[in-house]
Design a protein that fits this description.
Strands 2, 4, 5, 6, 9, 10 and 11 form a seven-stranded mixed sheet that branches. A four-stranded antiparallel sheet has the order 1-3-8-7, with no helix packed on it. It has no helices and eleven strands. By secondary structure, it is mainly beta.
């Protein structure tokens, strides 16, 4: 089993910053992609940012230039630095990881429990 534990959400005023962290633990042989998704009320879950093994970065257009994703492979941890936050960034943010738990090169998708980010205007 693999667990993803998120931290760092909260309430911030528009223009402010927050940093999210997500640590993966459990039976992990290797991790391919790690990243963040978000879901606002009444909307579908969407990709925010992800970092793939080999350091390829993917960002949603709406966060480019404001958010930065990074990863500490030794700690199996992914971070999301969010600057210049806007009210439309308000959502539950979910950590995601693609994990090979036994060296089989088959990757399984795991999700964190979600952390609320609220940006007030």
């Amino acid at each position: 089993q693999v667990q993803l534990v998120e931290s760092g959400g909260g309430l911030v005023q528009a223009g402010g910053s927050l940093r999210l962290s997500c640590a993966a633990s459990g039976s992990i042989f290797r991790i391919n992609a790690m990243g963040w998704y978000r879901q606002a009320p009444g909307k579908q879950r969407e990709l925010v940012a992800a970092i793939v093994s080999g350091a390829k970065l993917n960002y949603a257009d709406s966060v480019k230039g404001r958010f930065t994703v990074s990863r500490d492979n030794a700690k199996n941890t992914v971070y999301l630095q969010m600057n210049s936050l806007k009210p439309e960034d308000t959502a539950v943010y979910y950590c995601n990881a693609e994990v090979d738990y036994n060296g089989s090169r088959r990757f399984y998708n795991y999700w964190g429990q979600g952390t609320q980010v609220t940006v007030s205007s």
